[in-house]
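Journal club prep — side note

Before the paper discussion, L.F. wants everyone to see what a predicted structure for a comparable chain looks like in token form. Sequence:
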Amino acid sequence: MEELEAALETGGAAAAELAVSALLQDGGRVVPCPNCASPVIGRYCAQCGQPTETHRRSVVHLVQDFVKDIASFDSRILRTTRALLFRPGELALAFRQGRTQRYVPAVRLYLFVSLIFFLTLSATHIAIVQFVPVVTPEKIFVENGKVYAIAPGEEKIRVPAVLNDGRQHFAVSADTALFFAREGTVHPSMTAAARADIDNRLAYAQAHADDSRAAWISAQARRTAKDLATNPAALNGALTAWIPRALFLLLPLFALLLAAFYWRSRRRFYFVDHLVFSLGFHAFAFALLLVAAGLAQILPGEMVAWATLAALGAYLVLAMRRFYAQSWAWTGVKFLSVAALYTVFCVFPAMIGIFLASIFYG
């Protein structure tokens, strides 16, 4: 193979020398490329593609080049947008078949769509998620010499004896989560007494922690609880910072899952093909979430959430059918398997990690 490559390179160099010699004999002129200094025979450099005429003296040509570049870029963007939204699996299929000049590259497309998503949410002050603290009065009582707290409809829990001080205490939870609601539209109804109780409990837990690590965790939990008590969107900034980081791990994991389920087709589909498919699917997910964020302002959030999940599932199964070209039965089985494994073992752990990182590392 190395000998063949060397022969091809030698033959190419010889052909170039013959072409230059013939051009000189006919009275032609060989000029060096202004970009890479290689000898240029025609209107374009064979090495880097630089044109010999740069129109330095013509404003008209400069404007024409500008319009041509913009039109070419716009048409490429439009083709990519149509393929991404309305032709599931087309972008990955085009990459596999070598039709790469028609569309925006997969990595660039993913970064662009995700950037537009986060910038739009920031500009419109729409929070990815907001937690509304739910406060329930607790009853403190002593049983067999031990202090317990119980809230209406909940089981009793053992609490520090110091809480048996005759004051009103509260159980606080964040059961209510609002997705894609505008910041400032949700106002928690937490009383000053409830805030003081939260502060006292967390301060007690921090003071009686067994080690410095437990004390640090208690301090971070105390800070987050106090922030959410006044601003349900307090975690939004941290979530915006951690979600893109987690996705750089989820993207190749999704590609690995696809590679595992299509292992018998490994001679036709390389890992890079699965990775490009993963990039295209997650780019569509960001575009769909952007639409969902807009719909959530005028429609019930729960309905928008279910519709978004259904659209993501339908898109994925259609993309898999188009790209991998298997029967609908096999595509359906692999879709359900990939979706279940990816959700349970990748998405859910990533979400937990993102929330923990947002709380403790803000």
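L.F.'s comment for the group: The beta strands are 31-32, 39-40, 126-143, 146-150, 157-158, 169-182. Keep this in mind when we get to the figures.
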